[in-house]
Amino acid sequence: MSAGIHTRPDEGRVGAAPAGASPNPDLIGQSHRRSQAYGITAQAEPDFSSPSRGVLNDALDENRFLFQHAAPVMETLYDQIVNTHSMVLLTSARGMVLHSLGDTDFLEKASRVALTPGMDWSEQTKGTNAIGTALTEEEALTVHGNQHYLNANKFLTCSAAPIFDPYGQVIGALDVTGDHRSFHQHTLALVRMSAQMIENHMFADIFPKAIRIHFHTRSEFLGTLVEGIAVFSPEGRFISANRSGQFQIGLPFAALKAHTFSSLFGIPISALFELFSGAMPNPKQLVLHNGVSVWCRVKVKTAHPWSATRPDAPQGQQAFTAETGQGVAAHAPAKPPVKKMQLSSLQYLDTGDPQVSSVIHKLRMVSGKDIPVMILGETGTGKDLLAQAIHGDSDRSGQPFVSVNCASIPETLIESELFGYEEGAFTGARKKGAIGKILQAHGGTLFLDEIGDMPKHLQARLLRVLQERRVSPLGAGKEVDVDVAVVCATHKNIKDMIARGDFREDLYYRLNGLVVRLPALRERTDFELVVRKILKALCENGEQIGISPEVMNIFKRYHWPGNFRQLHNLMRTAVVMVGCQGVIELSHLPDDFLEELEHGLPNPIPSRLMGSIGPAQPLPDEPNTAPMPEPAAPEGSRLEDVALNAMAQMLRLHKGNVSAAAKALGVSRNTIYRKKDLLPPDVL
Ligand SMILES: Nc1ncnc2c1ncn2[C@@H]1O[C@H](COP(=O)(O)OP(=O)(O)OP(=O)(O)O)[C@@H](O)[C@H]1O
Questions:
Q1: Coil, strand or helix: which one is 13?
Q2: DSSP 3-state percent helix, strand, coil across the chain (nearest 5)
C-alpha cells in the first residue's frame, strides 16, 4: 500500500515476506526500482491530504458500474476476515480508494485516513504497495511488511487483485490490508476469488443481446466461481471472456477478439439453439479448438431475439437458457400458458403456397368434428405452429393447448408426464402427486409432438386413453374422464416404423383421422412472401428494415435444411445486425451461413447480381405479393462467386485492409485469406 502509514514504534523490525506472500518475488524488486525512478524516497512522510469531495464524487460516478458489483462481494469478503484486524478496500484503476470496509482499530488515528475513500494508493505516488503494484503489473499479489517501499507502510500486510472489466481492461483493484502480524497465506486466494466474483457479476449484467456460454472441463464446476464464461454476439462473434474462460480456451483476450464461436467451440452458433432447446437443458459437452472437452451451459438475455422464436417460450422468460446452478429455469413457476402468437391462425399461415392452402382447407373442413389430425413434415416446417393454429381457430381455443414433445422427455418420465401420478406413486414423486399433460389439456387440445418417439410400451396405454377417453394416473387406482382434441406430429416415416414393428398400427389408425403434410421451405412457391412476413413480424418495434435483392436471391436458392426455424433465426440475427433502419445485405448474415455459401449451392446465381450489391428493397407496409423481378441468369454462375465478389468489393472499399473488410462482411480474416488466390490481384 502507499499513502504512507507511519510505522509504529514497536514495529521497527518487520520480518521478510512469509512463504506464499507474493507469487513472484521479482515483481517486488521491479516495483522498488520503479518507485525509485518515480523519485519517491523510502523515508518520505505520508501524505494524508484527501482530495476534494468533488474529485471523489467524480471518481465514484466514473466507477459506478464497478462499485455496484463490488460492494456486495466486499461485504462477503469482509465476513470472512472479520476479527483479523484487516480492512477491505476497493480502488479505481488509478488506485484511488472508492470504498472501504472494516475495522481501522489496528491503525493509529492519523493512519486511518489513509484507508478512507479518496486516498491515492497508486505506485507512482506511494511506491511499492499491493494496490498500486497489482494495478501496474495487472497481477494479484501480496506486499508484506518491509516489501513496502515506504518505511511508513512496513507494518502492513496487503493483498490485492486487479479487477478486469468484461472488455479485458483493468478497472480497479480489490485489497485486504491488515497489521503484518495478521498475515494469513490464504488471504491472497480469497482476494483473488472475490475479484473474480466481481468480474463474473459484471458479466452477468452486461451485453444485453449477447449469448453467454458457461463452461468448464468438469461439469460440477459449472455455476461456480471458477467456471469459464465467454460471450458472443448473436451472429457468433467473440465479445468477451472472463479470466477462467481465457485460460481454458488457452488464448489471451487480445487473441480471442479475432475468433468466432464456431472457431472456438467447433459448432456454428445457430446449432446451440437446437442443442440447448427445451425447458431446462442439461449441460452439454463441446470440444474447444485446442481439443479440450468442456461441459457447457448457455444463457441468452431475455432481449435476445431467439428467445421469442419458439412458440413455447413463456413471455418474458428465457426460452434458450439454462441458468447455472439453480437459476431461473429451476425456479420458474409451473410453465405459464403458451403465448398465443400472431402467427398462430390458419389464415395467417395461408400465404399462397398451393400445398399449404390445401392443407388449411382440409383442416377447416374437419375443425370441431373430433377427428384426430396427424401433421407430417421435416423439422422446422411449422408443425408445432400449425397445431397451435388448429387449436386457435377451433371452438376449443379458450381452453388449454398442451404440447408434449415425446422426443425430449426421458423415457422413464414420459409415463408420469402424460398420465400424471398420485402422491407416493414412485420414488421421487412429488408430495402431492402431479396432474399429467393429458388431464391438463382437458377441454382443449393435446399436441403430441414427435409421436414417432413415443416408447412402444406406452403406445398401448395412450391408445386406451384415446379410445376410452379416460385416464388413470399412476398409483391412483381410479380413472378420470378426459375430453381432448388430439393433434400429433412427426418427421419420421411412421409407416416404415410400423413395418419394422416400432409403432403400433392400431395407434396409428387412431391418430391419423386426417393426415396433412407441410412442405419443406425449399419447395414452397410463396417463399418470398413468407420471408417478407417474417421480416415484418421481426420489425414489430417499428424498425424499417428491407432485404436486398441479392440476399433474397440467395435465400431462394438455399436448401434450408432447418426450414422455418433456420430462416427465422437467421433473419433475427440479420435484423439485429442491421439495427433500426437499413437493408439486410450479405454482410449481415452469420459467418457459418456465409461459409456454407462459399462451398456453393446447387442452383445457379444470376451473374448480374454478382456485379454489385443491389439496391435496397424496403419493407412494404403490407406484404408485397408481387414476385421479385428475376434477373436474367446465365447458366453456370456459382454462389461462391457472389461471396468472392463481395470480398473484392469490401477489400477495395477498405483499401486492401483485410481486417476491416472481414469485419464489414462479418467473416473471419482467415475466410478472406483462404480465398486470396481467387481474388483479383489489385484488391490485396
Ligand atoms: N408459416 C410460418 N411462417 C413464419 N414462421 C414460421 C412458420 N412456420 C413455422 N415458423 C417458425 O419456424 C420455427 C419452427 O416452427 P415449428 O416449431 O412449428 O416447426 P416444427 O415443424 O414443429 O419443428 P420440429 O419438427 O423440429 O419440432 C418457429 O419459430 C416458428 O415460429
A1: coil
A2: 40, 15, 40
Q: Taking each helix axis from N to C terminus, what angle separates 383-392 and 354-366, rounded to the nearest 10 degrees?
A: 40
Last residue of a domain, one of 518, 537, 560: 518
pLDDT surpasses 90 at 503 = yes
In a domain, 551, yes or no: yes
C-alpha cell at 27: 515483481
Give ligand 1 pocket residues (Cβ under 6 A): 309-311, 343, 349, 377, 379-385, 449, 491, 530, 534, 564-565, 568
177 within some domain = yes
Pocket test for ligand 1, best of 320, 527, 568 (most atoms within 8 A of CB): 568
> Which of 274, 320, 345, 385 most suits a substitution to test ligand 1, by most atoms within 8 Å of the C-beta?
385
Cβ–Cβ < 8 Å for 163, 171: yes
355 phi and psi, to 5 degrees? Answer: -65, -45
Q: What is the pLDDT of residues 526-577, one digit of tens each?
A: 999 999 999 988 886 677 889 999 999 999 989 998 899 889 889 988 888 8
Examine the domain organization and report whether 280 and 372 are in the same domain.
Answer: no
Q: Nearest CA to 525 among 357, 312, 334?
A: 357
Residues 451 and 484 in one domain: yes
- Residue 345, domain member (yes or no): no
* CB count in 10 Å sphere of residue 332: 16
Alpha carbon distance 245, 311 (integer Å): 33
User: Considering just the CA atoms, what is the radius of gyration of the chain in Å?
Assistant: 32
Are 253 and 400 contained in the same domain? Answer: no
Residue 1 covered by a domain: no
Q: How many angstroms separate the alpha carbon of residue 566 from the centre of ligand 1?
A: 9
pLDDT of residue 629: 32
Asked if ipTM goes beyond 0.90, one says yes
The model's pLDDT over 21-44, given as tens digits with 9 standing for 90+, comes to 555 668 899 999 999 998 999 988
Kindly tell me the burial class for residue 613, based on how many C-beta atoms sit within 10 Å of its own C-beta (0-12, 13-18, 19 or more): buried
Q: Note down the domain range covering 504.
A: 354-518
| Chosen domain end from 324, 341, 368 | 324
Domain shared by 28 and 91, yes or no: yes
Residues 485 and 536 in one domain: no
Number of structural domains in the chain: 4
Name the nearest CA neighbour of 158 among 125, 131, 137: 131
Interval 580-639: pLDDT, tens: 778 999 888 887 788 787 766 544 433 323 322 222 333 333 333 333 333 333 333 344
Query: What is the predicted pLDDT for the residue at 234?
Result: 79
Burial grade of 398 (CB within 10 A; 0-12, 13-18, 19 or more): exposed
Side-chain-side CA neighbours of 365 within 13 Å: the count stands at: 10
Query: 350: Cβ–Cβ under 8 A, 6 or more apart, which residues?
Result: 356, 357, 360
Both 457 and 397 in one domain: the answer is: yes
Of 144-148, 150-154, 424-428, 659-663, the poorest mean pLDDT is in 424-428
CA distance 78 to 75: 5
Co-location of 404 and 296 in the same domain: no
371 or 185, higher pLDDT? 371
Instruction: Report the predicted TM-score, pTM, of the whole model to 2 decimal places.
Output: 0.46
Q: Are residues 673 and 635 in the same domain?
A: yes
